[in-house]
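Structure request: Sugar kinase, Sulfitobacter sediminis.
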Amino acid sequence: MTAIDILALGEPLIEMVRLPKNDQPASIGQRLYRSGIGGDALNALVAAARQGARTGLISSVGDDLFGHDILEFCAAEGIDTHGVSVDPAHPTGLVYIDPDPADRRFFYSRKGSAASHLGPGNISEEMVAASRVLHVTGVTLAISETMRAAAFHAARVARAQGVLVSFDINFRPRLWSVEEALPTIEEFLPLVDIVLPSEDEAGALIGLASAGDILSHFGDHGARIVILKRGSEGAVMLAGDETITIPAVPVRAVDSSGAGDSFAGAFLAHFLESGDPRNAGHRAAQVAAQTVTGWGATEAIPRRADIGGDTG
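Returned structure:
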């Protein structure tokens, strides 16, 4: 089994990004969309791969044009897809994005998708054991009971094998309610070494607004590193007993899609390389900033050469 730095479990999606009003046709009822590849777990892998990490994906896609587009995209990005099955019975999921510089405006068409039928039996324990980090997201836990069971199984295998577990909260109210999400997330957190909540998610899920309270809440579950993502305000990190402020990098934003995911992937890539959470956080902020300068989640994610030298 080839060694992998970052292995992610989640659903890759075809993105349909609605173009700005000025680019739309005059005819009522007609809309122009630009297609792309996304999905939160895959977005993180793209960011990590473009920073030089060895990456792999565990998932499933439909045996359709969209699914094969995703596999082709992963191959081009150097993402290992030995853990991705092709399902002839269920379709590849889609997400429609109405771009916004700061807000999340997603509309999913993924019910019954191939990835939603993934279960614990689809997890390659050998692949998990051969990785350095297993990355899971709240969307992975939300899309189906079988995928949720797969995530718990993979995380337990990772813990048993000494593999770090990274968890991006990524709470999506369109996928599940607070009443369903909160106990599931709280049950998952003790398996996690690195956790990445955002301010709006913390407010919605646990009613906390103070950065210190949020960091403490997630740190109390046992995570070694907690990174509170604050959008245009940057991030605040709790690493052991040290609180680290990560300022945002000013850019002209057009679409916030994938910014938090690219932060997570870039952070993991640089943290594994250097062992320095402060530097990894600053590098991740640079990657996330560049991500929002283009349409869709992955197109504008920069490569390592495009973000300059070490900072912080």
